[in-house]
Design brief:
The structure is a homodimer. Chain A is an alpha/beta fold. Chain A has helices at about 25-35, 85-90, 100-105, 120-130, 150-170, 180-190, 230-235, 250-260, 270-280, 290-300, and strands at about 10-15, 40-45, 55, 135-140, 175-180, 195-200, 240-245, 260-265, 285. In chain A, about 30% of the residues lie in helices and about 15% in strands.
Chain lengths: ~300, ~300
């Protein structure tokens, strides 16, 4: 499995492409990651009003990096992605960060571009279908919109549209269905039992979340005394467990291995955090700075591909 | 002129492509810079034994980032570029940094790749000849090899080969001939009076040079009391003056403006340095981190292209 490490391999997953360096969830970001030998890509999927799966993180546009057709960062009421038709979504520009926002300040090295659009899922599927990216695999995060998070018909429709596109592109064996929303993953399993599932967990708030709209969380209560998160992931049918890097312990990692779970940690950006995850021996590191992780791994004698 | 700023424009020049993020002087680095809207590229040119202009900085290979055909970083005696034929040069890999070296430690975010080769000058000329890069301009640095630095025939031959390639690609109006070696620039002026000249200066050693092999310096003595560097550049026929960022003063910048010199500063990487150069109002900033400079300029209401 492409996300599984070994004694001398730790995988690198480009978070939203390479958010530290290029506009997040953009085709230019995915192309950059692939061009530097990062073949595992993490990204987020939501539906437009006209049922097109698009690649963007927040269920409503984030004013820190979305500009309207007037070229200005969004103000006031923010449109929900599921209230916009695809052609409307393409009118917004995601190429720059507003440096006056908390979110903008988090990425001081990100290239600033114009005319960068929210991609459709099928644009990325098409890109990685090129023969030169035959090793590319996708960590496709299904996001929840709180408006429809509890509506089983809407959820089934979302999963169906996403899985159909992946299947149509012939990429079911190269795509991991990934979510914080465990009931959404259960629906994925019903509809696409051939595709591996990846369970995101976060037990505590983190300063890494500043300026982001959270997805609607539908998880079992993982805070109960004595609960083993990897056991819960395994019982739920997970192939991969993806905890926040600050919350993984050597004990839980060993338990995950006993359960044959692959373990990827998110989102690991600082050099000392990267080193700690290498020391721990996770399978994969999800990062906004894939080059930085390559440097740490290369210096320490690790590879990230076979 | 593409390197000239204005009240709300400061230009960004990608140093050796984007050395902070991708292997220096590599095609993948140049492509990355261009893909993020950086259309001014700085790079270094030397000649192989069989008289092919190639893009690489040190007159002998740098053991900090050059691996031999055995995949190991170079050890022992380092080959001079002008002792290797083109086909031999292509046997070396420049895709990784050795993190145990001072030079390697300077670029902790650089992507680590395999199979990256020293490009021929004509590969880059071909790339920027594509219609989509019609705005791209080149800051072509001619490097001196100490073995031939004082041989006028060798120097004339070097300049002739480089200028012929630029002329053959139809890029004379998009290429600045750039050097620390003022006699080499005088030779450029003799052979290609239609091409603008750019004079590099550095009066004092800098910690930014750690781990680099210096070019042979043939400059007038700029340390004399009362000498005005911009005046010297202007007298020598310069269109652009390129001082180290730590050595420029508001007084010299104003004098350069009086002399109609364009002023680009090298190599500006730290946020506080970038801010200081924006405050000073230089025309152009040469940087290993073009995205970081875009962020600073964007936040402060500047553009970097028309």
């Amino acid at each position: 499995m492409a996300f599984t490490g070994s004694a001398d391999i730790i995988r690198i997953v480009g978070h939203r492409g390479a958010r530290g360096l290029l506009p997040e969830n953009s085709m230019v970001g995915f192309q950059f990651a692939l061009s530097t030998g990062i073949d595992l890509l993490e990204f987020d999927v939501l539906l437009t009003a006209d049922d097109v799966p698009v690649i963007t993180h927040d269920y409503k546009f984030n004013r820190s990096f979305v500009r309207g057709p007037d070229g200005k960062f969004l103000q006031g009421e923010l449109p929900h992605i599921n209230s916009l038709r695809m052609e409307e979504v393409k009118g917004f520009d995601i190429g720059r960060l507003d440096g006056s926002t908390d979110y903008g300040r988090r990425f001081p090295d990100q290239a600033q571009m114009d005319g960068i659009r929210v991609p459709r899922l099928d644009e990325l599927l098409h890109l990685v279908s090129q023969p030169k990216y035959a090793n590319a695999c996708l960590m496709l995060e299904l996001k929840s919109d709180p408006d429809s998070a509890l509506d089983p018909v809407a959820r089934a429709g979302f999963v169906s549209l996403v899985c159909d596109e992946v299947r149509g592109a012939g990429l079911t064996d190269r795509t991991l269905l990934h979510s914080f929303d465990w009931t959404l993953l259960a629906e994925c399993h019903r509809q696409a039992p051939d595709m591996p599932l990846s369970f995101l967990t976060q037990l505590h708030d983190s300063e890494d979340d500043v300026g982001e709209v959270s997805s609607y969380l539908i998880t079992p209560d993982l805070h109960q005394n004595g609960i083993s998160v990897p056991d819960e992931v395994s019982k739920a049918g997970g192939a991969l467990w993806c905890p926040h890097f600050s919350e993984i312990t050597a004990h839980d990692l060993a338990r995950a291995r006993d359960l044959s779970l692959c373990v990827a940690v998110w989102t690991v950006n600082e050099p000392e955090e990267i080193n700690a995850m290498i020391d721990l021996g996770v399978d994969a590191i999800v990062t906004d700075y894939p080059g930085r992780v390559q440097r740490r791994l290369s210096d320490r004698g690790f590879r990230w591909t076979l």
